[in-house]
TrEMBL record:
<dbReference type="Pfam" id="PF07715">
    <property type="entry name" value="Plug"/>
</dbReference>
<keyword id="KW-0472">Membrane</keyword>
<keyword id="KW-0812">Transmembrane</keyword>
<keyword id="KW-0798">TonB box</keyword>
<dbReference type="Pfam" id="PF00593">
    <property type="entry name" value="TonB_dep_Rec_b-barrel"/>
</dbReference>
<keyword id="KW-1134">Transmembrane beta strand</keyword>
<keyword id="KW-0998">Cell outer membrane</keyword>
<feature type="region of interest" description="Disordered">
    <location>
        <begin position="828"/>
        <end position="849"/>
    </location>
</feature>
<dbReference type="InterPro" id="IPR039426">
    <property type="entry name" value="TonB-dep_rcpt-like"/>
</dbReference>
<protein>
    <recommendedName>
        <fullName>TonB-dependent receptor</fullName>
    </recommendedName>
</protein>
<dbReference type="InterPro" id="IPR000531">
    <property type="entry name" value="Beta-barrel_TonB"/>
</dbReference>
<comment type="similarity">
    <text>Belongs to the TonB-dependent receptor family.</text>
</comment>
<dbReference type="InterPro" id="IPR037066">
    <property type="entry name" value="Plug_dom_sf"/>
</dbReference>
<dbReference type="InterPro" id="IPR036942">
    <property type="entry name" value="Beta-barrel_TonB_sf"/>
</dbReference>
<keyword id="KW-0813">Transport</keyword>
<dbReference type="GO" id="GO:0009279">
    <property type="term" value="C:cell outer membrane"/>
</dbReference>
<feature type="domain" description="TonB-dependent receptor plug">
    <location>
        <begin position="56"/>
        <end position="177"/>
    </location>
</feature>
Length: 1141
């Protein structure tokens, strides 16, 4: 056997014509130097454990991306390259991993990772393999592999098998399999260096790869080592004009429904100017909702005793809401009641100092609170004001107190273009900064002519830096009248007492604290994997076998700095003057029981109603507390104070996978042969164990760090839980949210088998007729047994044409995260579907309003808060901030089942050499689909269902206190995994590849087009009720048409290729069902094209110089997106050199 090459175990190699068949037009062809005909590296294409010749003989669509395709790309992220494949266009890449897209959001724990997503049905339904074997997960919450950890230098090819493959490869292969095949017989030294830079001179990238391989012992053995380092500087929002200063567009209620600055003037709208005049009626001249002309006329007559004669300008204003879309998509959306350095309100909110009599600091003759709608709206004294939100003044970076300047008002809490309320719009990363180091060692050794030992090892360290936004804190922070940091201009007014919940005077400040620190989070990931086994042949039976053991471990260490420790924060901002020194001091240093106020709305909730009930994380008077100056502008809070009340939040996560597997494959030729040929088969078994663990820091878990905490005479010790001391759940971050360190595991035993039966061949109109199938039985420790199967057929009436069909059943059991992730505290802030401004966005506004009325009334909301005197619905969401809830797994989940059908045809006309065309229809239906429904979808689905008797309303609760300022507002939301109904996706793939010569030039043409016909998620319904269908097609990242076109030319040592991508129009935001209704016809994107140009020069037989331009035409992300459908980097250049010795 020593003289045989290392492909003796039935490995067949293909010519270029066959290899072209396999491609989904992934990239241009690669040609051998000085060749007269197009040739690419010979490939073995399987798609199952039965060795098949090519895609043309597979009953399911199978495509291949070659190593040359990967190496010539402008990016070092494999996920981005594969994302160009229309079947994988919804994959998460490192570029779009911050926030994902509007339709494909990602957690912060996954930033920097790449997860593949076939058919837009979720990465948890795409199985990623390496050399046909499972790989440990690298994406929290799924079994998805972080493909960025797979060394590109070692990749020989990537096989993409679309359609259900659970019977062949096991659970998670619901929509298909992506298999990375690595080199295992490389000889030589290959060193590759590349660097890249954007057209703006930033976003630098660097990649250094080394591949070293050597055969030994007369070619019986081989070892291959891969070393790789990739780095990227990342990109911040402020680095691009279209993202800087909150430039990304966001949807909100259309400002056209409210009076805006300049709408009302004495000259053009005299009746409105008279009525919307604070001195006349207590109303403000802009910011309030535009009534109907009839309502205004009635109110005007009631106020002034005469009916108004409307001018044309006034009538146009009254008509504007009826001619405007309900929502608008604009840049610069802000939470206008707060700002980085503070929005300030008097502590009485107008109860002791009437609105209009507050200070006039800018000297314009008007109270500063009447200089802006935000100031007016903060008072409880205005006829149309909301009250107890925002404030009249803004503190700028220099610490100056200036009047608030409004933008376009959309509601009580939001505006477009209120520049003073930005939250660090330029500092956050939009592409993470990362550094990655990997080492892989693969080897094999022939123990005998029929037995080979093989091993694979890898270690990857990946550090990702992201975040960088503002350090948000609680709104309505209280400063007592004796706080020495109060602005001198307001000190005298701070002594005015308030009434009710607003309390004893002082000032309130809403401060997002942009100056605590950089707030850059870090994910440090490590991935290790070991594979070892034996493979060989049983010559006496003509069989091949493999037995392997596989172990992988993924660790993530997450750090998020400047997280506030709640009781320390409130202690630090409760400042008074030390009578002994005359210096500012924490009040707790003077009195251990002087517990500070929290907020008027008792948030965060501790015992004591709006105040701390004790100090939990430090001993008052021990000298730790350092006073914080909230009123001095940027940098006014000392570093000592920041160090006292913040900590670095940490989360540690570990995922382990152990697999033992074995299989035998071959054919029946040693036993029998059918007239059309032998029967091919494979059978085997697998045991797999998955383990997951999360560990949170003691502050998140609410563990008391000190002893001596006393509540109601009961003393508590260090190590006790804060929930036993107060209503809080944790000490840091959001005190209503507790994190629990947990672990979980399951194991599964599988047996499986495959067959391929040649039924007929070499007959008239039956060149080939083949039947294949597969069956797998799995026994899970969590769910018991489940069966999956597939059956397919291939018919070639003539040599040029092959028809194929496949039918399969797949079962995916819930993963550990979906099942056992503990319910952790979480803050939510969905738009309230019952807010009057949200009704028009409903698929059926009448149904939503009826459900809202029924629910609000059942929650004791006063009727005057629901209807006006004329019976019009008027409920307004009373919340100005998020509310608590929980997020977690669901141990009651059931496995989901999928039926996948594919039908296709492959054409290889003999009269056009080098041309391959394939057309495939696919249909995927998933029953009891498992999904984590978003908070927004939970809220809207509750009220848009035919009745309130639905599973979504069970996950929500509202404030039931009729006298509360937040009566009817959401108070709790439970976001868990659900078997929510049915998911359905259908479409058609067309793939064309053609390679030919013109003189000395080799030309390659490739194209892939996917037409998605359906992409629906069907929610469960009660008997007799119509099911709610959520159609995702044409939503963001869900185009109806997607295509890829590749063109290449090669001659002599030179080659040039152009890769182009096409996406059809999509809705920029919102559910597609109501996109036009809510935003108008302009809500859709234009058709999108992007182009990448690359070139190669074989300088010598050992040196290749390459380079290119990505995003050749400098396309921008869509208006609502950070990094879709292209990176915000824009046009970028790269240059590399490859030396192969």
């Amino acid at each position: 056997m020593n003289t045989k090459p290392h492909n003796s175990f039935a490995r067949r190699r293909l010519t270029v014509a066959i290899a072209m068949l396999a491609g989904v037009a992934s990239t241009p062809f690669t040609y051998a130097q000085q060749s007269d005909t197009p040739v690419i590296e010979e490939l073995v294409v399987t798609g199952s454990r039965i060795q098949r010749v090519d895609n043309a003989t597979s009953t399911q669509p199978l495509s291949v991306i070659s190593a040359e395709d990967l190496s010539s790309s402008a990016t070092v992220d494999i996920g981005e390259i594969l994302n160009e494949n229309p079947a994988l266009l919804s994959s998460v890449t490192s570029t779009n991993s911050i926030g994902g897209t509007a339709a494909n959001s990602t957690r912060s724990s996954n930033v920097g990772g790449s997860a593949l997503n076939l058919r837009s049905l979720g990465s948890q339904r795409t199985l990623t393999l390496v050399n046909g074997r499972r790989h440990v997960s690298g994406i929290e919450g799924t079994s998805s592999v972080d493909v960025s950890t797979i060394p590109s230098a070692l990749i020989e090819r990537v096989e993409v098998l679309t359609g259900g493959a659970s019977a062949v490869y096991g659970a998670d292969a619901v929509t298909g399999v992506v298999n990375f095949v690595l080199r295992d017989d490389y000889e030589g030294v290959d060193i590759d260096f590349r660097t890249g830079i954007s057209g703006e001179g930033d976003a630098n990238t660097l990649s250094l790869r080394a591949l070293i391989g050597q055969n030994f012992d007369d070619n019986r053995g081989n070892f291959t080592v891969s070393l790789q380092h990739d780095s990227s500087d990342g990109l911040r929002a402020g680095d691009r004009s279209f993202l800087a200063n909150d430039g990304r567009a966001t949807g909100d209620v259309n400002p056209a429904f409210r009076f805006q600055q300049g709408d009302i003037t004495a000259a053009n709208t005299p009746n409105l100017a008279q009525y919307y005049n604070f001195n006349n009626t207590g109303l403000f001249p802009y910011g309030l909702r535009i009534p109907s002309a009839a309502t205004f006329a009635s109110n005007y007559q009631n106020e002034f005793g005469t009916a108004p004669t409307l001018t044309a300008a006034e009538q146009a204003l009254f008509d504007r809401p009826s001619t405007s879309s309900p929502r608008a998509l604009l840049p610069g959306r802000t939470f206008n009641i707060t700002s980085p350095y503070g929005v300030v309100a008097l502590g009485d909110f107008g109860t002791s100092v009437p609105l209009g009599q507050e200070p006039d600091l800018n000297g314009n003759g008007t109270s500063d609170c009447l200089d802006s709608f935000t100031g007016y709206n903060s008072s409880l004294d205005g006829a149309g004001s909301y009250g107890a939100v925002g404030g009249c003044w803004v503190i700028n970076e220099a610490g100056e107190l200036v009047s608030y300047e409004d933008g376009l008002v959309t509601g009580n809490f939001n505006q477009f273009g209120a520049a003073q309320s930005y939250i660090a719009p330029n500092r956050p990363f939009v592409i993470p900064q990362d550094d990655k180091y990997s080492i892989n060692l693969n080897g094999r050794y022939e123990l005998s002519p029929t037995m080979e030992l093989f091993a694979e090892t890898k270690y990857v360290y990946h550090e990702v830096v992201f975040g960088g936004g503002g350090n948000q804190a609680t709104d309505l922070l209280y400063a007592a009248p004796d706080n020495p940091f109060l602005p001198s201009q307001l000190a005298s007014f701070a002594n005015n007492p308030g009434v009710g919940f607003v309390g004893p005077g002082g000032l309130y400040i809403n401060r997002d604290s942009d100056d605590w620190g950089d707030n850059e989070s870090v994910n440090r990931r490590t991935t290790v994997r070991f594979v070892g086994g034996l493979r060989g042949s049983l010559d006496q039976w003509g069989l091949d076998y493999e037995v392997a053991a596989n172990y992988g471990k993924f660790n993530r260490h997450y750090k998020s700095p400047f997280t506030p420790i709640t009781d320390r924060f409130f202690a630090a901002i409760d400042v008074t003057t030390d009578p002994a020194t005359g210096q500012p001091v924490c009040r707790s240093d003077l009195s251990a029981t002087a517990y500070p106020r929290t907020t008027p709305f008792n948030f965060p909730a501790y015992l004591g109603g709006g105040a701390l009930s004790s100090f939990f994380s430090f001993q008052p008077g021990d000298g730790q507390c350092q006073p914080a100056n909230l009123f001095g502008g940027k940098g006014s809070i000392s570093q000592e104070s920041i160090d006292f009340f913040t900590y670095t939040r940490t989360v540690k996560e570990e995922i382990e996978q152990s697999v033992i597997s074995g299989f035998v494959s071959g054919n029946s030729s040693e036993f029998f042969t059918l007239p059309a040929g032998p029967v091919s088969f494979a059978f085997g078994g697998e045991w797999r164990e998955e383990t997951s663990a999360q560990e949170y820091d003691s502050y998140d878990q609410g563990v008391l760090p000190v002893s001596g905490v006393t509540v109601d005479g009961v003393a508590f010790e260090a190590g006790d839980w804060i929930g036993d001391v107060s209503n809080a759940q944790s000490l840091g971050g959001s005190p209503g949210n507790r994190a629990l360190s947990t672990s979980a595991s399951y194991d599964v035993w599988d047996i499986f088998g495959e067959f391929e039966i040649p039924l007929l061949s070499n007959l008239p109109l039956i060149e080939t007729l083949t039947l294949d199938g597969a069956f797998r039985r799995a026994d899970y420790s969590t769910f018991g047994e489940s069966d999956t199967f597939k059956v397919g057929g291939l018919w070639a009436p003539v040599q040029d044409i092959r028809f194929r069909a496949n039918y399969s059943k797949a079962v995916r059991v819930p993963n550990l995260f979906e099942l056992f992730s503990p319910e952790q505290g979480q803050n939510f802030r969905p738009n309230d579907p019952c807010d009057v401004s949200q009704l028009s966005s409903a698929p059926n506004p009448t149904t939503r309003q009826n459900n809202c009325v029924a629910d609000l009334q059942s929650k004791n909301v006063p009727n005057e808060n629901i209807f006006d005197a004329s019976g019009n619905y008027i409920f307004v969401d009373p919340l100005s901030a998020g509310f608590p809830g929980v997020i977690g797994g669901n141990p009651d989940l059931e496995p989901e089942e999928a039926i996948t059908k594919t039908f296709g045809v492959v054409v290889q006309p003999r009269f056009i050499e080098g041309l391959t065309v394939s057309l495939d229809y696919w249909d995927i239906v998933i029953e009891d689909a498992i999904s984590e429904i978003s908070a927004q979808n939970i809220a809207t689905s509750c009220y848009d269902s035919p009745s309130l008797d639905n599973p979504f309303c069970e996950l929500l609760d509202r404030n039931r206190e009729p006298t509360s300022a937040q009566s009817g507002g959401f108070t709790f939301l439970r976001q868990v995994q659900l078997n929510f109904g049915e998911a359905k996706a259908t479409g058609v793939d067309l793939n064309v590849n053609y390679g030919f010569n013109i003189g000395d030039y080799q030309i390659g043409l490739g194209g892939a087009v996917t037409k998605q016909l359906e992409l629906e998620f069907i929610e469960p319904s009660n008997p007799g009720e119509e099911a709610v269908v959520d159609d995702d097609l044409m939503e963001m990242n869900r185009p109806e048409w997607a295509g890829q076109l590749n063109f290449s030319v090669a001659t002599g040592p030179f080659s040039v290729s152009l890769r182009s991508q096409y996406l059809s129009e999509m809705a920029l935001t919102g559910p597609i069902e109501t996109a036009v209704q809510n935003y108008g016809p302009g809500i859709f994107t234009d058709e999108f094209f992007s182009h990448n140009l690359s070139g190669n020069w074989d300088y010598s037989s050992t040196v290749r110089i390459y380079g290119g331009v990505s995003n050749l035409t400098d396309e921008k992300p869509f208006a609502t997106e950070r990094s879709y459908p292209v990176s915000p980097v824009g046009r970028a250049y790269y240059l590399g050199i490859n030396v192969a010795l």
